[in-house]
Amino acid sequence: QVQLVESGGGLVQPGGSLRLSCAVSGFSLDDYNIGWFRQAPGKEREGVSCIRTSDGTTYYDDSVKGRFTISRDNAKNTVYLQMNSVNPENPGVYYCAAGQHGKYDYWGQGTQVTVSS
After folding, report:
1. How far apart are CA 36 and CA 8, in angstroms?
2. Environment class of residue 100 by beta-carbon count within 10 Å: exposed (0-12), middle (13-18) or buried (19+)?
3. Is residue 101 over pLDDT 90?
4. Is 21 helix (H, G, I), strand (E, B) or coil?
5. Contact, 95 vs 107, CB < 8 A?
6. Which residues are CB-contacts of 66 (< 8 A; sequence separation ≥ 6)?
7. CA 26 → CA 4, 43, 51, 68, distances in Å?
8. With 92 labelled, which of 29, 47, 49, 114 sits at a CA distance of 20 to 30 A?
9. In Å, how far from its chain's centre is CA 101?
10. How far apart are CA 2 and CA 104, in angstroms?
11. Are 7 and 23 within 8 A, CB to CB?
12. Structure confidence at residue 10 (pLDDT)
């Protein structure tokens, strides 16, 4: 059974850091691309970053380039999103998802990130 479980969300001050984790089971990280998405209140879900399974290539939305880093640990079946220099545009529910060929088929339940001083 495919499962993705996010963790690591919480309250962070502007300029602070947070690391989100996405623990996967039921499949290998070698077989699926993993993406991180954010849904802010009243807004549609949007892509933040992703990592390609074939060669580990990473992609970032322009709004987080240079501040967020996606990485994976195949031995732990976990993908991370390191969030640095968090700003008031970054809060929301963060989801990780697994997919192939540009389509994400499996989603986690999300983890809440709140930015406040």
Report:
1. 13
2. exposed
3. no
4. strand
5. yes
6. none
7. 9, 31, 18, 27
8. 29
9. 18
10. 13
11. yes
12. 97
Task: In whole angstroms, give the CA distance from residue 70 to residue 75.
Answer: 16
Q: Which two three-digit tokens encode residue 71?
A: 């990485």
More confident: 117 or 46? 46
What DSSP letter does each residue of 46-104 carry, written as one string?
EEEEEE-TTT--EEE-TTTTTTEEEEEEGGGTEEEEEE-S--TT--EEEEEEEEETTEE
Q: What Å distances lie between residue 95 and 26, 27, 86, CA to CA?
A: 18, 18, 17
Measured CA distances, 21 to 40, 54, 75, 91, 117 (Å): 19, 21, 14, 16, 23
Say yes or no to pLDDT of 69 above 90: yes
Q: Mean pLDDT across the stretch 82-100?
A: 96
pLDDT band at 84 (very low <50, low <70, confident <90, very high): very high
| Contact partners, residue 101, CB within 8 Å, separation at least 6 | none
